[in-house]
Design brief:
The complex is a heterodimer of chains A (246) and B (232).
Chain A (H helix, E strand, L loop, with lengths): L1 H16 L2 H22 L5 H18 L2 H13 L3 H5 L5 H30 L3 H28 L3 H11 L1 H12 L14 H11 L6 H25 L10
Chain B lengths: L1 E9 L2 E10 L4 E6 L6 H8 L7 E5 L5 E4 L11 H11 L4 H14 L15 H12 L6 E5 L7 H16 L3 E5 L3 H7 L2 E6 L2 E6 L1 H7 L5 H9 L8
Parallel strand pairs in B: 3-7, 3-8, 5-6, 6-7
Antiparallel strand pairs in B: 1-2, 1-4, 8-9
The chains are: A mainly alpha (246), B alpha/beta (232).
């Protein structure tokens, strides 16, 4: 039932909200981009460089906002052995995963919004930021699902941390590649999660026209990928190893 | 509560083999066995978190309160919030939750720690808080895996009183323990398993009589100390 997923989500949000270390690190990640771009903007006015940098930081912020919660919410629960008592309650494991995903998504989305708000101030461009937020927010849902899937595969928070910190390189690599090696424009790239968001971000920032169909298509593909990965994570929560062995 | 012909293996190694026993209403049943005998696996299947390979258990998750192997409290939540979370997941209405939590806090003497975060509790306090969370939905039956581990004398007595109280109210209770004194003092019925099989069951006195032993410890050692793998 959705109701139970919401109860799980609410608890995870309250729990993570009290984890100061997690909040501070997420906030630093979100504001690092605007701070660095501001420093660079003192030395160069070349907007292509600034926008290229910004897009990388914004993509990373989608992966950074909820990473600590994702780590804690499954691998951490297994490590502290609080997952077993949770599973004793009469609720479907899928609902547990959905609840955790909603909570992680919220923090990921908050990371993106804080990051874009920072850029709106630094680059004096509030309007494109709204549009950019619409492009990047679905990526926060995908990042949350991916992080939870990895977290579900791990026995301890530290193990999850190892893999999740590698995952942050995914948007970084995509972004860097675009900045230093712009791909020739191919239509399908616009629909590829991560890369699609990167391209769209740059288009918004350069005030280039973005087709509605393209934006909607990317949003749908990213959302569908998030749901598929979420389903995979929910299935992985069903296996015996989750409650067997320590 | 009843398990019949329960089997479970992990990676080809069988942990529980064709185990059957009953835990009657209004009685405390002790599950005894050496380390690795299959107690924890059995209790987890009984509680429905592990699916058996074959066999069945008759118990509803709704009527069951369980405390397995570890307290597993959420460190950043207070004792009350830990209880509230599980009560909500059980679908209890908000009004009933507040009343029930007040009642559980009174029963287990948690007044001084109810508003403290679980991270700041002592081991005994944590166990009591976990027990409170396990019974927050007023379950009819209880399954406890080594509940007395790490508890001080006062807490053990409080636990004993709680179990006797629940039994007298008609609950079926199963608990596992290594402390045979504890088991002898509390249990009406004992089930002994070894390497996944049932080797004996009966009242503490009957088991001593059956093995011609003076103490339950001697009876346990005679029943489980054999070299050959028990047939079942």
């Amino acid at each position: 039932m959705l109701n139970q997923a919401l109860i799980v989500a609410r608890k995870e949000i309250a729990d993570n909200w009290r984890d100061r270390r997690s909040l501070v690190s997420a906030l630093l990640y979100a504001l690092m981009g605007p701070a660095i771009v501001m420093m660079v903007s003192f030395t160069t006015r070349a907007s292509a460089v600034l926008i290229g940098m910004m897009s990388v930081f914004t993509l990373v912020s989608a992966f950074a906002g909820g990473v600590n919660l994702a780590m804690d919410a499954v691998a951490g629960e297994r490590e502290r052995r609080s997952l077993l008592p949770l599973l004793l309650n009469p609720l479907r494991r899928r609902d547990i995963m959905i609840g955790k995903w909603l909570a992680v998504s919220l923090f990921s989305a908050a990371g993106v919004i804080i990051n874009l708000a920072g850029f709106a101030i630094v680059l004096h461009a509030p309007r494109p930021m709204f549009l950019a937020a619409a492009a990047v927010l679905p990526l926060a849902l995908l990042a949350a699902a991916l992080q939870l899937l990895i977290s579900t595969e791990c026995r301890a928070a530290k193990e999850a941390h190892t893999y999740l910190s590698m995952l942050v390189f995914l948007p970084m690599i995509a972004g860097m590649f675009q900045v230093f090696h712009p791909l020739s424009p191919r239509a399908w790239l616009n629909f590829l999660p991560v890369l699609g968001q990167q391209l769209q971000l740059e288009q918004w920032m350069h005030s280039a026209p973005v087709s509605f169909a393209q934006a909607a298509g990317l949003c749908c593909f990213t959302g569908a990928a998030a749901l598929l990965i979420l389903e995979a994570a929910a299935l992985r929560l069903e296996r015996d190893e989750i409650v067997y062995g320590d | 509560m009843e398990v019949s012909n329960l089997s479970k293996s992990f990676d080809g190694r069988s942990a529980v083999r064709g185990l059957s026993f009953q835990a009657a209403d209004g009685a405390i049943t002790g599950l005894l066995g050496s380390n690795g005998a299959g107690k924890t696996t059995t209790l987890r299947m009984l509680c429905g978190v592990l699916q058996p390979d074959s066999g069945s258990t008759t118990i509803g998750q709704d009527s069951l309160g369980a405390l397995l192997d570890h307290t597993g409290l959420y460190a950043r939540l207070t004792v009350r919030e830990n209880m509230e979370y599980f009560a909500r997941l059980r679908g209890m209405p908000s009004r009933a939750i507040a009343d029930r939590i007040a009642a559980v806090i009174a029963t287990l003497n948690l007044e001084t720690i109810a508003e403290r975060r679980a991270a700041n509790l002592s081991q005994g306090e944590r166990m009591r808080a976990a027990l409170a969370r396990a019974i927050v939905h007023a379950p009819r039956n209880l399954v406890l895996d080594e509940p007395a581990n790490g508890l001080d004398i006062h807490s053990v007595r409080a636990l004993r009183d709680l179990l006797r109280h629940a039994r007298d109210a008609g609950a079926a209770i199963i608990f596992s323990s290594h402390m045979l004194e504890e088991v002898r003092a509390l249990c009406d019925h004992i089930v002994i398993i070894d390497r996944g099989c049932l080797v004996a069951e009966g009242s503490p006195a009957a088991l001593c009589l059956q093995t011609a032993s003076a103490s339950l410890e001697d009876a346990f050692v005679k029943l489980t100390g054999t070299q050959e793998v028990p047939a079942c």
